[in-house]
Amino acid sequence: MKKAIIIGIVILFIFTSFSGCLEEKKSDTDQKTNTEIAVEFMTEIQQGKLNVAYTYFSQSMKSQFSPSQFQTSWDTITSLYGSFEEIKDTNESVEDGYDIVFVNCTFSNNYYIIFKIVFEKSKEISGFWTGKIEPIHAYSAPSYADTTSFYEEEIIVGRDPWVLPGTISIPKGEGPFPCIVLVHGSGPADRDETVGANKPFKDIAWGLVSNEIIVLRYDKRTKVYPEETALLKNLTLEEEIIYDVFAAIELLKTKEKVNQSQIFVLGHSLGAMTAPRIAKTNDNVSGIIMLAAPARGLEDLIYNQTVYLAELDGIIDENELENIRIINESREKIQSLNISEDDQVLGVYKSYWEYLDYYDPVNVAEGLTIPIMIIQGLRDYQVTYEDDYIIWNSTFSDSSNVFLKTYEGLNHLFIEGVGTPTNTEYLTEGHVAEEVIEDLAGFIKGEI
Question: Which class is 150-301+328-444 in CATH?
Answer without folding.
Answer: alpha beta
